[in-house]
From TrEMBL:
PANTHER family: UTP--GLUCOSE-1-PHOSPHATE URIDYLYLTRANSFERASE. Gene3D superfamilies: Spore Coat Polysaccharide Biosynthesis Protein SpsA, Chain A. It is an enzyme of class 2 (transferase). Belongs to the UDPGP type 2 family. NCBIfam families: galU. It comes from the Bacteria. This is UTP--glucose-1-phosphate uridylyltransferase. One of its GO terms (molecular function) is nucleotidyltransferase activity.
Length: 310
């Protein structure tokens, strides 16, 4: 029987991927450490976890991820140098990353898919619900999706997915869900998920509701993942395990989704990564004042060039 009452106290963040889309930059630098303005992408994710009240974080790592561990560790030599130079604001920034949460690490070993990465967390998580956050999706701190998902878990039990509406022509890039509104009078952004399909064709998708990289899972997911057969690329797919949970709510508890319409920044490919940097730079306290006028002039120059060429 699923455990409905336990609080969500732990988060799991898989960071074992090879980052092949960003080669050669990721040959020696983990993709999660690529900068987004003034912080590596992974720090935004850990800050989101901390803002939701979770202090226990497990990073699922792999080879060549030492830089991630170093970033969240104390750097006594650097701190000492900054203190001696009287650079207090820089010192505070350096210390902040190591004070966000209590961070643990486990290696995934072979790259056997997201489902296998989650399964690697079982010993640390134990018999309690937990959050999973994927580093490609950065959620704006002004739109606390994870916090909302945890509250939905507290109300309904079971597991909860982060969802967003996408153009039907793009649904083949995501996992799509079949979902139904919850009881009359409930908040309209909460749905009951009854099925999932990984990267369906546009004509066969059950809806235009796509799964994004936020999950709050009951511990029963581990039993399901151990039974889940490898799928595409010989990887264990988390979507396959979630589909079993969705179709057997009496056994595993309900599966709900929170439809997110806030600010989300995708860093999964070159174009999205660059768009995310521009979006965040336009609102950054220290960057925006100089960056916005430059961007306007740059775009105006592009428009003139295109008109002249035409």
């Amino acid at each position: 029987m699923y455990n409905q009452t336990s609080a969500v106290r732990k988060a799991v963040v898989p960071v074992a991927g090879l980052g092949t889309r960003f080669l050669p930059a990721t040959k020696a630098t983990p993709k999660e450490m690529l900068p987004v303005i003034d912080k590596p992408a992974i720090q935004y994710v850990i800050e989101e976890v901390a803002a939701a009240g979770i202090r226990d974080v497990l990073l699922i790592t792999g080879r060549n991820k030492r830089a991630v561990e170093d970033h969240f560790d104390r750097s006594y030599e650097l701190e000492s140098a900054l203190a001696a130079q009287g650079k207090q604001s820089a010192l505070d920034l350096v210390r902040a990353s190591s004070e966000l949460a209590e961070i643990h690490y486990v290696r995934q070993g072979a790259p056997r898919g997201l489902g296998h990465a989650v399964l690697c967390a079982q010993r640390h998580v134990g018999d309690e619900p937990f959050a999973v956050l994927l580093g490609d999706d950065l959620i704006d701190q002004r739109d606390p999706l994870l916090e909302h998902m945890i509250k939905v878990r507290e109300e309904f039990g079971g597991s909860v997915l982060g969802l967003m509406q996408v153009d039907p022509a793009a649904i083949h890039l995501y996992g799509a869900v079949r979902a139904h509104p919850v009881e009359v009078g409930r908040v309209p952004d909460i749905v009951r998920v009854t099925d999932l399909v990984e990267k369906p064709s546009a004509g066969s998708a059950p809806s235009n509701l796509a799964v994004i990289g936020r999950y709050v899972l009951s511990p029963e997911i581990f039993d399901v993942l151990r039974r889940t057969e490898p799928g595409r690329n010989d990887e264990i797919q988390l979507t396959d395990a979630l589909r079993e949970i969705a179709t057997q709510p009496d056994r595993y508890g309900p599966l709900h989704g929170v439809i997110f319409d806030g600010r989300r920044y995708d860093t999964g490919n070159h174009a999205d990564y660059l768009r995310s940097i521009v979006q965040l730079a336009c609102e950054h306290d220290e960057v925006a004042a100089d960056f916005r006028p430059w961007l306007r002039d740059f775009v105006a120059g592009l428009d003139k060039s295109e008109k002249g060429a035409g």
